[in-house]
């Protein structure tokens, strides 16, 4: 984040620390995920001549892009695989079973996606 901020690419950033406790206690307190998360809006440069809806002068030299990898992974699991992904795991609603997943790599494998470590992901 510091490197992105130094480059002037962060328009908005909110960080929430993990609130993880026992799953039973958490379920009684909230329906939201308890895991650490980062909400970002990035300021990305527009390619030359990329004016949208008007003259090039009316278009800024950058565009705002919200990145939400968790939401996209959940959408993919539901729409493409018919599975439910949430903070408790990956669930098959037809079989009424959870997939065994001890790591992020396991979730990607169950979804048939290539796993890349976070530092190598291009969002």
From TrEMBL:
Transmembrane segments: none annotated. Keywords: Nucleotidyltransferase, Transferase. Residues 70-122 form the DNA polymerase beta thumb domain. SUPFAM superfamilies: Nucleotidyltransferase. InterPro entries: DNA_Pol_thumb_sf, DNA_pol_X, NT_sf, PolB_thumb, TdT/Mu. This is DNA polymerase beta thumb domain-containing protein. It comes from Saguinus oedipus (Cotton-top tamarin).
């Amino acid at each position: 984040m510091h490197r992105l901020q130094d480059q002037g690419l962060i328009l908005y950033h909110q960080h929430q620390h993990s609130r993880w406790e026992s799953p039973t206690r958490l379920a009684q307190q909230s329906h939201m995920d308890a895991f650490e998360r980062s909400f970002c809006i990035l300021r990305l440069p527009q390619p030359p001549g990329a004016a949208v809806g008007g003259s090039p002068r009316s278009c800024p030299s950058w565009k705002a892009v919200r990145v939400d990898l968790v939401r996209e992974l959940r959408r993919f699991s539901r729409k493409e695989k018919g599975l439910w992904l949430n903070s408790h795991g990956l669930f098959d609603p037809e079989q009424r079973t959870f997939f065994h997943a001890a790591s992020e790599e396991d979730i990607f494998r169950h979804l048939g996606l290539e796993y890349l470590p976070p530092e190598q992901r291009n969002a």
